[in-house]
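so my prof wants the structure for this chain in the tokens format not the other one, which i didnt know existed until like an hour ago. anyway here's the sequence
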Amino acid sequence: EGYGEFSTQPLVASGSVYAGNSDGHLARIDPDDGGVVWQVDLGAAVSAEPALIGDRLVVGLANGRIVALQ
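here's what i got, hopefully its the right format
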């Protein structure tokens, strides 16, 4: 399954790659095979690189929102 074009730099952490795209999806990608492990529709283009803060994955969106996932 393809993921599409990134809209930001991906985050590599804890053996995974996290990336967002301009379609509003944030995905966890397996670095070994490039497959999408999971993805979530955030409703707006991902405009800021994902970051890990404690046990939360935080990302900024083009609509000005900041989303934290656990």
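also thought this was worth mentioning. The CA atoms of residues 4 and 46 lie 13 Å apart.
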